[in-house]
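does this look right to u?? 2-phosphoglycolic acid version
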Amino acid sequence: MKLIRAKDYNDMSRKAANVVSATVILRPNCVLGLATGSTPVGMYKQLIAWYEKGDLDFKAVKSINLDEYVGLDAYNDQGYRYFMNENLFNHVNIDKSNTSVPNGMAADVEQECRRYDKHIADLGGVDLQVLGIGNNGHIGFNEPDEAFEQQTHLVDLAQKTIDANSRFFASIDDVPKQAITMGIKSIMQAKAIILLASGEGKADIMETALFGPITPKVPASILQLHPNLTVVADEAALQVVAQKHPELF
Ligand code: PGA
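got this back:
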């Protein structure tokens, strides 16, 4: 694991954008695994700024998103397809037909999951997977469970996730209760992974995930086994890691 310490959210965003842009520059037709949520928004803003300056070209880039709520269509402003269009795709020269988000409106969810896995395989896998971390240790929407789910699958969202994500919805009753998420296998098969975290709300789970036992009860703990994991986190998110592992600092 490579640990990149950032001062604050803006610094984390810029450092993370540097890692993504290095991938795009070195491999213009790369497959990026992308994440939603509050954490990567600043990183996307920075990538857009560098695109506008002429430093980045997304013309041949392909992308695969981690997850989508069940029951929200591409035009729903709480959906993750909408999020990606608003926060990145509409502002750079990526070809939208090269971007993928699970279809939360699929009539046959199981078939949609199999289609998504096949699509990832057909693209040759993910070159760089961007991840956030839930305060319960989820990655994508792989929630704490008795076993690691390997394939893209339907999940019942954990109450902690519903509570955390209710901030984006008019009321907690509007938060979807299910989602489609890429599984642990596709995430772990990415050639490189960058895990982002910001703020003291993530401080405990960052220590548990990166230094605790590897268990499906903390899905992000599996990342300890990835051969090419880069963690980009700010001081607030790393405060418990710093207390318990001062030798790293
Ligand atoms: P956040 O979500 O970036 O909004 O904190 C992270 C996650 O749930 O993966």
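Residues 37-39, 132-134 surround 2-phosphoglycolic acid (CB under 6 Å). idk if thats expected tbh
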